[in-house]
Amino acid sequence: MNDTYKTIAFPSDEILFKEKNSKFFGYAFPVTTEEEIKNHLENLRKQHHGAVHFCYAFQIGTTKIQFRANDDGEPSNSAGAPIYGQIQSFGLTNVLVVIVRFFGGIKLGVGGLISAYRTAAQMALEAAEIVEKTIDIHYIVTFDYKNMNKVMRVIKEKNLEIVAQQMNESCQIEIATRQKNATMVLEIFEAMFEITITKL
To answer: The whole model's pTM is what?
Structure first.
């Protein structure tokens, strides 16, 4: 079972691609929510006052994929689709690519636009650091304080990540594990006395 995905580590440096006096500024951002996407677009609109088009595409999710391609006033499928095509050809998810265009007075035609947006998107992604991450499953483990050592031993042995913890009379620990190990981890804790585990 493949439980890894590729994304970018940080926002890329701004790139500039020029075609017949038109300027295309390219950006790539790591994102996981539509809220983040909205914020990045708003910031770019503030940054580039004179720009005519803010074309973008994004893909978020690992098991359930969500994506969109937006032409922002350019001819249909001449901007968003070639940008999204680059996200796919790099094999990425949880990523937003925005190309900001300043019109230079010469029309590029649909073919010229497709080529320009594709090139700018490719340059933006090449400027980003691509990383591989694991698809993680999160569980909440609940237990009495007296069972702390038993729980901690499993967490250490199985190399589980502690995401959050709450230690009182009754303790709760949120753990994360790679998808391919999730069933095994669930079964270990389910077999333990006085300990409950629930999937988030």
So the answer is: 0.84
